[in-house]
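On clarity, I found the account of how folds are encoded harder to follow than it need be. Since the whole study asks how a given chain folds, the encoding of that fold should be made plain. For the editor and my fellow referees, an illustration may be useful. An entry of this sort, consisting of the sequence and the corresponding backbone structure tokens, reads as follows:

:::
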Amino acid sequence: MELGDPVRAMLDHKGWGALSIGPDQTVFDAIEKMAEHSIGALVVVDGETLVGIFSERDYARKVMLEGRTSHDTLIRDIMSRDVITVPPDATVDHCMHLMTEHHIRHLPVMVESRVAAVVSVGDLVKWIISRQSETIEHLQHYISGGYPR
């Protein structure tokens, strides 16, 4: 049941870890790092403490539309501060629900007080599709008589 899988199972397959940026770095630094790693968001950490998240959406709405420059704007000035997080045992269904309800695309996964990973809506959809494909394959094998009776 793919929606009941814990996000930990997905991360064991995808990989743990999260790219971060400091609150006193520039938006340009963040955009450059995101482009280099082909990701849409960075967690903002001060030391080891999660203080925010910066996404492409923050850039579009708080830099471009407000006429700021990425070289002069600090992450702390435009990051999203109210970060919704999940533990590794949160289900894929719960993560999808949170993302839909709060109109967000990235969820930091916390182990104790540290960011252990970030999951995106794309990661979750890819996981669900993969699990459904496995289920379909097992059912086809069963229907075609591939299982002992």
Remarks:
- The radius of gyration is 19 Å.
